[in-house]
């Protein structure tokens, strides 16, 4: 029996929850030849939404679509590597002619990928060290997209990472190439709304006013509840509305986490059991216990001040004024300056995230399961 609550891979249409308005808006915006800026908190489902849009007939039949997540990249070299890998892997299923055309266009990397002489299968063996002139390779990639025999859509997830690259003028370089293109549209997606909106809304920035913007918020609770109950019923199972509501409320509607809880609930061996609130609490407890070893390792890699600061923010849930005397005293932290240093390190380690609410930074733990585990253990 298929578990309808997908937590990995592309979600098939029957199991995709809502996002109908967003799907129509993004699809129509792309059809009207406009770039898109898509922002949302992490784990809210933006990646799945992009892949869902790519499966819409008007997009799938008329465009070449590419998707890459650059969250882990730290330089232009890595960006070029990720872009070229995605194009190559997306073209392989389309046949040798498509691959050959790409290979002929990327002269700067010609010796690093091609075909296995024995099997005849395409190979991709590019390493960072092979990219000697990233600016040139980037230009070749964009030239290929511009000359493709069908319009292209390239989704770049966690696009805000380019602001952290050590190379100068990355935004200007990318914008210069992109604004000359007529055959490729871009979806710039990311979870750091403040950085991205500044990148696209500031008149001093190269990407100013260059994309239509959409913010992805939570799926409404009543819609999610109806969807979850229907999926259980279609499988001859049952879950109470209160159980779904509890799963939703525990994570404030963050799609990934709610799906993870319901995925585990659906996997109960006793198919005759009606899943209730108590089951949801037990499932959450089991998940936190299962992840406990990993989370312990994460905490052990932090120094004392980082650990204490992370614990304090986890217990607050959403923390503002973190360098104030009030916050420091409440959580018995060393000093405002030590908290500031700790937060900088925790942000770099991607253990913390923040939103700007009325010009105030509000911090929270990036992983909601980690936040819950911290509150349980400490």
Structural account:
The protein is an alpha/beta fold. It contains 16 helices and eleven strands. The strands form four sheets. It has a five-stranded parallel sheet, with helices on both faces. The chain is globular and about 60 Å long. The model has no long low-confidence stretch (mean pLDDT 91).
Uncertain ranges? none
Widest sheet, order of strands: 2-5-6-1-7
Give the assembly state of these chains.
single chain
Q: What is the gyration radius calculated from CA atoms?
A: 23 Å
- Provide the succession of SSEs: HEHHEHHEEHEHEHEHEHHEHHHHEEH
**N- and C-termini, Cα separation:** 39 Å
Number of DSSP strands?
11
Largest sheet: 5 strands, parallel
Backbone shape: globular
Report mean pLDDT, rounded to a whole number: 91
**Structural class by sheet pairing and helices:** alpha/beta
Q: Give the helix level as a range of percent.
A: 40-55%
**What percent of residues are in strands?**
5-15%
Enumerate how many helices there are, as a single number.
16
């Amino acid at each position: 029996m298929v578990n309808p609550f997908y937590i990995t891979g592309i979600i098939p249409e029957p199991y995709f929850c809502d996002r109908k308005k967003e799907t129509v808006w993004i699809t129509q915006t792309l059809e009207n030849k406009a770039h898109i800026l898509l922002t949302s908190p992490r784990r809210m489902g933006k990646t799945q939404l992009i892949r869902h849009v790519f499966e819409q007939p008007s997009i799938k039949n008329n465009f070449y679509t590419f998707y890459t997540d650059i969250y882990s990249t730290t330089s232009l070299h890595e960006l070029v590597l990720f872009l070229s890998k995605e194009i190559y892997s997306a073209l392989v299923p389309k046949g040798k002619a498509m691959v050959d055309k790409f290979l002929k266009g990327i002269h700067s990397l010609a010796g690093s990928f091609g075909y296995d002489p024995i099997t005849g299968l395409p190979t991709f063996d590019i390493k960072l060290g092979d990219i000697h002139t990233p600016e040139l390779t980037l230009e070749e990639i964009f030239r290929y997209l511009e000359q493709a025999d069908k319009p292209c859509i390239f989704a770049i997830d966690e696009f805000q990472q380019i602001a952290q690259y050590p190379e100068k003028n990355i935004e200007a370089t990318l914008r210069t190439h992109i604004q000359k293109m007529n055959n490729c549209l871009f979806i710039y997606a990311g979870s750091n709304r403040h950085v991205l909106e500044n990148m696209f809304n500031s008149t001093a920035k190269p990407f100013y006013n260059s994309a239509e913007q959409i913010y992805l918020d939570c799926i409404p609770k009543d819609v999610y509840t109806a969807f979850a109950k229907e999926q259980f019923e279609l499988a001859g199972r049952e879950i109470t509305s209160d159980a779904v509501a509890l799963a939703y409320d525990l994570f404030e509607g963050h799609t990934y986490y709610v799906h993870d809880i319901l995925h585990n609930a659906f996997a109960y061996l006793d198919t005759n059991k009606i899943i209730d609130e108590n089951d949801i609490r037990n499932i959450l407890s089991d998940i936190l216990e299962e992840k406990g070893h990993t989370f312990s390792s994460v905490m052990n890699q932090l120094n004392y001040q980082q650990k204490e600061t992370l614990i304090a923010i986890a217990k607050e849930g959403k923390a503002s004024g973190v360098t104030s005397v009030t916050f420091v005293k409440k959580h018995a932290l060393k000093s405002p300056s030590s908290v500031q240093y700790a937060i900088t390190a925790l942000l770099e380690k991607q253990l913390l995230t923040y939103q700007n609410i009325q010009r105030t930074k509000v911090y929270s733990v990036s992983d909601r399961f980690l936040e819950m585990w911290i509150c349980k253990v400490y």
